[in-house]
Amino acid sequence: MGVRLFxxxxxxxxxxxxxxxxxxxxxxxxDAAPEPTPPPVIAKPVSTRPPLPPNATYEEALDExxxxxxxxxxxxxxxxxxxxxxxxxxxxxxxPRNAKVTIKxxxxxxxxxxxxxxxxxxxxxxxxxxxxxAAKYEAKSAARIAECADKATRALTWPPSLRRDSFTTxx
Length: 171
Hints:
By secondary structure, this protein is α+β, with helices and mostly antiparallel strands. It has 4 helices and 3 strands, in the order αααββαβ. Strands 2-1-3 form a 3-stranded antiparallel beta sheet. It is rod-shaped. The model has no long low-confidence stretch (mean pLDDT 80).
């Protein structure tokens, strides 16, 4: 009986002690601040259109799709911020008194991205038809004024804004 008891105790000891390791000691870890979650990534729509050419018209600039995100809190430029740079835009263009110049501008990131210049001559309350020579001179003058105003407008800078702003001004 002594051998049997010794074997039984040995078997119980082997099963109880040899089958698992003792648990690891408990270590206190100080509470670490949770890592901040990164801001959500807002994917910009992929445009299938080519980028605007450097001489794009106002209409072409407005036809370009713009990201309209409801959560976008960036401010648009004010009317004063948009029109202030235009004060002396025609200073070097030699515009006759009877010419009415309309400039349409689309602005983004401090630059004009689209400009259209319209020139119309006022011939008084009861205009008579122009001679062919006068009409040709007026057309050349209108083209010269439009080119000068377009170039001067594209050279201007506006306050920084990632949004597309647009306006029309008349002289």
